[in-house]
Design a protein that fits this description.
The protein is mainly beta. The protein contains one helix and twelve strands; from the N terminus they run H-E-E-E-E-E-E-E-E-E-E-E-E. It has an eight-stranded antiparallel barrel. A hairpin with a 2-residue loop joins strand 5 and strand 6.
């Protein structure tokens, strides 16, 4: 079972790496706001490539009793500058968590991001969710909420 999990994790990381074809990319961290339902993982690596509208999140929870991998993939379908360096984004996405807590569902992240300096992005988002499948089987309709905050640094390579 652990070999399958590690293989899935490797494939997900490879997919993220292969999607990077531009010279500028953002990388940072996303952290769970548990009062809003949290993320599939308490902390996630956040990666955004500007040539695609997909924002990737990859996380893992490891301790003596738990091993869980998590992934989010969001498409910023709508973005709008609100004022100055503060922007709004909304779009459809997916989330996955496995193997200890198996969950697969859709999400709609609604967030604010700000660029106080050109190389630093700060964000805050909530994401209503619809659980498609879990340990108990098909769960439609099962609604929830995820919340996160974080940062990304932008680099030119």
């Amino acid at each position: 079972m652990r070999k399958k999990v590690l293989l899935i994790a490797f494939v997900l990381v490879a997919l993220v790496a292969m999607s990077a074809s531009a010279n500028t990319f953002g990388i940072g961290g996303a952290f769970s706001i548990d009062a809003l339902g949290g993320l599939p993982s308490n902390a996630m690596l956040s990666v955004k490539f500007p040539q695609t509208p997909v924002l990737w999140g990859i996380g893992a929870q490891l301790n003596q009793d738990t091993f869980n991998l998590a992934m989010t993939a969001d498409w910023w379908l709508y973005t709008q500058n609100l004022v100055g360096f503060v922007n709004l984004y909304v779009g459809p996405g997916l989330y996955l968590s496995l193997p200890d807590r198996i969950e697969f569902g859709g999400r709609v992240p609604i967030g604010l991001n700000a660029y106080p300096i050109p190389v630093l992005e700060l964000f805050l988002e909530i994401a209503p969710t619809l659980l498609f499948f879990s340990n108990q089987g098909i769960q439609i309709p099962s609604f929830g909420l995820q919340g996160a905050f974080g940062f990304r640094f932008w680099f030119n390579v």
